[in-house]
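FAQ
Q: What does a multi-component entry look like?
A: The components come first, one per line:
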Amino acid sequence: GAVVSQHPSRVICKSGTSVKIECRSLDFQATTMFWYRQFPKQSLMLMATSNEGSKATYEQGVEKDKFLINHASLTLSTLTVTSAHPEDSSFYICSASTGRGIGETQYFGPGTRLLVL
Amino acid sequence: AQSVTQPDIHITVSEGASLELRCNYSYGATPYLFWYVQSPGQGLQLLLKYFSGDTLVQGIKGFEAEFKRSQSSFNLRKPSVHWSDAAEYFCAVGALGGGNKLTFGTGTQLKVEL
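Then the predicted structure of the entire assembly, as tokens:
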């Protein structure tokens, strides 16, 4: 149980285009979803937290107009990288949890590798 | 703000040998601590977590971790490593009032020699 999927698994796009990444909880309802960015050989950096039906909360330094997050249902959150540039190339990972309580386990998706040419 | 340090970037052990991965945290109150494993092409999988109570926590795949408040550590151990344990291991800390947000360490890459 507690499976999270991401689509696509990898995407290559031209600079200036927008890319949408989907994160789905397959067998549970995710009240909260998180979006992370992982650079090679580095840790996961939290980008934003999204709660179903409300606006996402972005971490300091993350441009909310560039990384649009939508959490329209209890099983789906999307991250749209708008006007992507080569520096946005990275590994994007989502996670989902069933609640907002302290210590709620986060279940992670397999990640999406984005390459912007 | 909380932080996590994993001092070892790479560790190589022989199959069957014991393993200890180090994790030190910085947080002003009682932390909530986690160990995750990341295998290529797969999402991070929770190995174990500590909230309170017994400071020795048992997890999946034969892993355990011990919370030592005096040393601000939460080291991960396994008595006998299997080749399939080769992966990247992340320690993370969650903060009270942090909305369930996690801060991750930089990870330790484990290589298992046959």
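Q: Is there any commentary attached?
A: Sometimes. For this entry: The mean pLDDT of chain A is 91.
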